[in-house]
Amino acid sequence: MSTAYQIIVCGSLVPDPLQTLEPVQAATGPALKNEMMLPSVLDPWAGHALFEAANLAKQNPGSKVTLLSLGPKAKLQQLMMTIAQKVPFELVVVDGSASGFMDSTEVAAALAAAIEKIPGLDKTKLLVFGGCASASRDAGVTMQLIAEQLGISDVFLGVDELKVQPDGSLQLFERIEGGQYQVSTCACAPVVIGWATGNLPEPPNNPQVGMANMRGIMPALQKAAPAGLKGDKIKFASVELPKQVRQTRIVKDTPVDEIANEIVTWMKG
User: What superfamily would CATH give domain 6-226?
Assistant: First the structure.
């Protein structure tokens, strides 16, 4: 017997990784040069979470997938033109900065508050998905903080697979060291899951799915509530690109141990 889940995926936009990202010190704090002009994509880890959520909803009739995004409305509208064609979902938008310089505590509080306001929220069926990391806000704590705000004690991170057992329990495969998995069983919802790369490929574009999604996406963007992020909890002394250092010396007939020791000494220095 299948269970109807209420799956909320936390995911937003990040700058296209193929672009050159240059940090600058703006009037309001650190930012990326020409950030609003940079092409954006859905955060890769959040993308895996969204595809896994859609697959789970497809296997359990009556389930609903909601994509919760915190970011600038104008940029999200551009992003949704492509994401909408992948899988069916409803969109909830919190209008605010998607900068990687935002504090994870503030971001998690804004997302948790938005989840609490979703109409018909039923925590007995609630699965909160997200990426275990992020291409911008990679503090690695956002999903745990959301769980704390929502009062959810079952949190699993680095998940690659989720299986619904015949008794309704959830079996989860979490990445651990050595390329192995820790297999855990969660009796029931609610649960917060931070996905790694999962096992599913990116779905192909489906124009019909896109048209159905866009009917709800545009109203969701128009009524997006402001996030109210202050961004004053973290102070950055400076931001700069990592310095490229290259020191080359050509030697002959040097023992391997001597080369290794020299490298270690250089690294320590």
Answer: HUPs (3.40.50.620)
* Element (DSSP H or E) covering residue 114: helix 104-116
Q: What distance in Å separates the CA atoms of residue 71 and residue 91, rounded to the nearest whole number?
A: 12
User: Can you tell me the mean pLDDT for 52-77?
Assistant: 91
The answer to whether 128 and 6 have CB atoms below 8 angstroms apart is: no
Cα separation, 116 vs 86, whole angstroms: 26
In whole angstroms, give the CA distance from residue 95 to residue 223.
9
Q: Answer for the pair 121, 103: CB distance below 8 angstroms, yes or no.
A: no
Quick one: CA dihedral 152, 172, 176, 135, positive or negative? negative
pLDDT band at residue 231 using 50, 70 and 90 as cut-offs: low
- 3 state DSSP class of 120: coil
Instruction: Please report, to the nearest 10 degrees, the dihedral formed by the alpha carbons of residues 203, 195, 229, 35 taken in order.
Output: -50
Contact between 3 and 10 (Cβ < 8 Å): no
Measured CA to CA, the distance from residue 147 to residue 109 in angstroms comes to: 10
Total-model pTM: 0.82
pLDDT of residue 97: 80
Our CA angle for 104, 105, 108, nearest 5°, is 80
